[in-house]
Specification:
Elements lengths: L1 H19 L24 H12 L7 E5 L2 H14 L3 E6 L6 H15 L3 E7 L19 E6 L9 H7 L4 H5 L6 E4 L3 E5 L15 E3 L2 E5 L2 H13 L4 E3 L6 H25 L26 H9 L11 E2 L2 E6 L18 E3 L13 H11 L4 H9 L5 E5 L7 H12 L3 E7 L7 H16 L3 E5 L5 H6 L12 E3 L3 E4 L3 E5 L5 H5 L4 E6 L1 H18 E7 L2 E5 L17 H10 L9
Parallel strand pairs: 2-3, 3-4, 7-16, 13-14, 14-15
Antiparallel strand pairs: 1-8, 1-10, 2-5, 4-9, 5-6, 6-8, 11-12, 11-19, 13-17, 15-20, 17-18, 18-19, 20-21
Helix pairs in contact: 1-5, 3-4, 4-9, 10-11
Length: 584
């Protein structure tokens, strides 16, 4: 009960802060200079490298792809793009956390700006509060521009305060830019599920996300850049300087440093030992966030020990591909409460301009089908309607609406095998989202969908996905965060979207569709190994749910949510029915 009282006290304190700034408003007449991606990416060193690799591989297609499963590849690819960029770096993210891993990345971004690279950083506003607001200091560094998408009004002391301040505009709170892009010189880029932070790179203390990104090279990146530009130049994107002053950020930095010192002193007193030494890291420069609250020496050392991916030896798979991207208009601009959404899905053409005769007709057909949809998720539902034999899906937050369940039922009626890997209650970092999934679990099983739920505390699934089971800090708890679909063993989809109503109706998303049996096989092998060795298979037995233990785990089957506490199960059972699916 003490934790409940502490939460109540914290809420009262936050409420007092909120009331001081409840009348805050967003600025009007904001100056947003228009800028776009560079027009000739092949004139850069990265562009020349991509051309050389394609020629050396004798590739039939112009665009190449590399799956980035584990933290070393995911982190190293971004380091390589930072170090290799000569003209531009464009970053678009839902969340950038001020911690040890991000500190190293952003130090590199700052160094790139110092050597003349134009840097544009577009960040969703929701999580740019508290300590994480320190990343906004980059906006005051020469040659770096930073904008916040769909911001909330009010002080940045806490997310709770800003949400409460915007309580009269619930749609603004709900609708977020969930896209993830990391683009260099308009010729190489990373997209997928990862935000920037310790937990996404196997470096967090309490648990790490299992995720999957894809590194793209060639003309398909120009499509990703056009999507970035559409968001960057949109009226919903506010330059940081229009929302926060340099002096405010400096005051926040000083408070964060003071909190770190107090935390270290408190820990030392509790152990009756002298304060631990501060990790020896370069002093953060202006515009670079200080690492997260009292990072351990192991966290700092790991971040600084990671090596850039060697792009000269990286094995790209050259294949036709298309990009799906929600338009920024999916989130309404500030035109009044009665303004309707302006959805619309951007679907690029199959990207093989050098060899039009070799374009994959099935991919063209897929892009035509998706183009008739309004959102990325709806486009994927249209693709599911074209599946012939097999669908393999990872969605960490899986809340199927009526049309999604209908698409699955229709596919099963055609004999399509459907396997879905999602989070268990214990592995879900947002347990309330599990409520929406659990409501539909029996219906999905009855129509023949095979369900797997990630086991929270073990190492085998981390090894299977190349995630945090390699001795990194915080490896005890794994949380699924990948967003992947493999259709008929030849079409691979990697993106930022979940198969839930939030991604379908509210958040903006981006995805790559790659027609490649080789990449599809590689992704399928990782997913299937994770299902066998690190996940509970959920089945119906005489109308009741049974969780079958992972292969070789030595665990027993169970009839209750595995690894979850009784308290958590009871809380969700009591309060879960009050939350509608579209809010989970």
């Amino acid at each position: 009960m003490s934790s409940i009282y502490a939460l109540f006290g914290r809420s009262v304190a936050l409420l007092a802060i909120v009331l001081q700034g409840a009348c805050a408003q967003l600025p009007e007449q904001v100056d947003r200079p228009v800028s776009v991606a560079i027009p000739s990416p092949n004139a850069t060193a990265l562009g020349a490298l991509v051309q050389q690799r394609r020629k050396a591989d004798g590739a039939q297609f112009e665009s190449g792809f590399l799956l980035l499963g584990g933290p070393p590849a995911a982190y190293g690819s971004r380091l390589a793009l930072i170090e290799g960029a000569q003209k531009t770096l464009d970053l678009q993210y839902y969340a950038i956390h001020a911690d040890a891993s991000t500190s190293r990345l952003l130090r590199g971004v700052r160094a790139a700006a110092g050597r003349g690279v134009r840097v544009r950083i577009l960040l969703d506003d929701l999580h740019s509060t508290g300590r994480d607001a320190l990343v906004l200091g980059l906006a005051f560094v020469p040659n770096i521009e930073m904008r916040l998408f769909n911001p909330l009004a009010g002080a940045r002391g806490s997310s709770f305060a800003r949400i409460f301040n915007s309580i009269g505009d619930a749609s603004r709170i709900q609708q977020r830019m969930h896209n993830k892009l990391f683009l260099a010189d308009n010729v190489l880029g990373v997209t997928g599920g990862r935000n920037l932070g310790d937990a996404y790179f196997g470096n967090a203390l309490k648990g790490n996300f299992i995720d999957l990104d894809i590194l793209a090279a060639g003309p398909i990146v120009q499509d990703l850049s056009r999507s970035f530009d559409s968001y960057w130049n949109n009226e919903r994107a506010y330059p940081v300087q229009s929302l926060v002053k340099r002096e405010e950020l400096q005051a926040m930095r000083e408070r964060a440093e003071r909190a770190d010192r107090e935390l270290a002193d408190e820990s030392a007193r509790s152990l009756n030992a002298p304060p631990p030494p501060t990790p020896q890291t370069p002093k953060p420069a202006e515009g670079e966030p200080k690492p997260g609250a009292a990072p351990t020496a192991a966290q700092v050392a790991r971040a600084w020990d990671e090596k850039p991916l060697d792009l000269r030896t990286a094995r790209f798979v050259w294949a036709p591909a298309v990009m799906l991207a929600d338009q920024p208009g999916k989130i309404p601009a500030d035109k009044g409460p009665n303004q309707e959404k302006a959805p619309g899905l951007v679907v690029s053409q199959p990207n093989d301009r050098a060899n039009p005769s070799r374009r994959a007709a099935s991919l063209e057909a897929s892009s035509d089908i998706a183009a008739g949809s309004d959102t990325v998720v709806e486009g994927l539902l249209q693709l599911i309607g074209q599946a012939n034999s097999d669908l393999l899906i990872i969605s960490p937050y899986f809340v199927p609406g009526p049309d999604m369940k209908q698409a699955f039922a229709a596919a099963r009626g055609r004999g399509v095998r459907i396997r879905v890997l999602t989070n268990s209650l214990a592995s879900n970092d947002a347990p309330v989202a599990h409520v929406g999934y659990s409501r539909h679990r029996q219906d999905l099983l009855k129509i023949g969908v095979e369900l797997y739920e990630l086991r929270s505390e073990q190492a085998s699934v981390s090894n299977a996905f190349g995630s945090s089971g390699d001795g990194s800090v915080g490896a005890s708890r794994s949380m699924l965060h990948s967003k992947v679909l493999v259709m008929d063993g030849r079409l691979l989809v990697v993106g930022s979207m979940n198969l839930d109503l939030r991604s379908q109706l509210q958040n903006t998303e981006v995805a790559l569709l790659v027609r490649s049996a080789e990449l599809s096989r590689s992704a399928s092998e990782q997913i299937e190994r994770g299902m066998r060795e690190g996940s509970w298979r959920v089945e119906l037995n005489d109308g009741s749910l049974v969780w079958r233990a992972p292969e070789g785990s030595g665990l027993k089957d169970t009839t209750t949510e595995p690894d979850a506490s009784l308290t958590l199960r009871l809380m969700l059972k009591l309060f879960g029915p009050l939350a509608p699916d579209q809010l989970l």
